[in-house]
Description:
Blueprint: H1 2-17, H2 19-39, E1 47-53, H3 58-69, E2 73-78, H4 83-91, E3 96-100, H5 104-111, E4 113-121, H6 125-149, E5 156-164, H7 172-193, H8 195-201, H9 205-210, H10 215-243, H11 253-277, H12 281-298, H13 311-317, H14 321-335, H15 339-368
Parallel strand pairs: 1-2, 1-3, 4-5
Antiparallel strand pairs: 3-4
Amino acid sequence: MNRFWAFVKKEFLHIFRDYRTMMILFAMPVVQILIFGFVITSEIQDASIAVLDKSKDEVTQQLTNKMMASGYFKVERYLQNESQLEDAFKVGRVKMAVVFEPDFAHRFYKDGLARVQFVADAADANTARLLTGYAEGIIATFQREQNALNAIDMKRIIPEVRMYYNENLDGVFMSVPGIMAMILMLVSAMMTSISITREKEFGSMEVLLISPLKPYQIILGKVVPYVLLALINAVSILIMGYFVFQVPIKGSLVLLLFESLLFIVLALSLGIFISTVAKNQMVAMFMSMFGLMLPTILLSGFIFPIENMPLPLQLLSNIMPPRWFIIIIKSVMLKGVGLTYIWKETLILMVFITVFVSLSVKKFKIRLE
Length: 369
């Protein structure tokens, strides 16, 4: 029995000496519970909206102030006419627009009936449903307060809800672009992350070391086959989304394929970078799965709106490449925009590619020495 307890003690000491095991046992659960606790919430705060006030009277001003004071909304811009409405959604800075009809106060106080329209960007169906629900609740509260002051002359405000880009609020319109980003990121990065580590484990690294190929040539040689295979994967996802789930492709198919290819190259360059710093295939696989899967699901806006997250997590989401690719895919497929509207996201992807490729070449040079 003493030998057994001595053996158990030895195992405890062995675990405590390995800082990587300690990180997995204690640090990872803490990080995951913090991220899940802050990210997974059904509430939305400070969602950007636009206001088109055709009346510009005291009642519309009161309602606008109530919406801002609720904590759910913040006015990003004031529109001058309806022609600016769709452009505001295509730019992607606003999630919903509030449109007050002309002579709103007169219709409300004199006629007893006024109308307001809530136009939501339903490319993210869950967010659109929540925002319009919040807005309708604020209107109902204001109406009850006004009627409480004068119970004889009852007044009504009729909210009209209109959904852009996804009138039926089909969840698949949101999930297909997100799943596409997740699959391309995980599969592409995972395939390439084990490429160099496989060479080391199989003992073929020496062949590469004495070959006349330069580091960038070796890296490109490993990436090119995976680029073609991942592009076939991306095309398959688009075909299934269009024909099986009826997800529209309103924008340019050429632009969509170009952006997909750009993201594939980014994911592969990230996988190559992981493979240059990982010691073996197991470590590379672990880094690819747990270092990319959870951030892609949680911090990319795929499932949970980024606006819901605390400021530190919102800032962290900026360095998550899938976030920008999902914006691009939704904009091209659902909104039909061109490169003019997504040039910033495209440039961000190119910067990521440059950074990861540069780091990979640098790390590979160090290994060659």
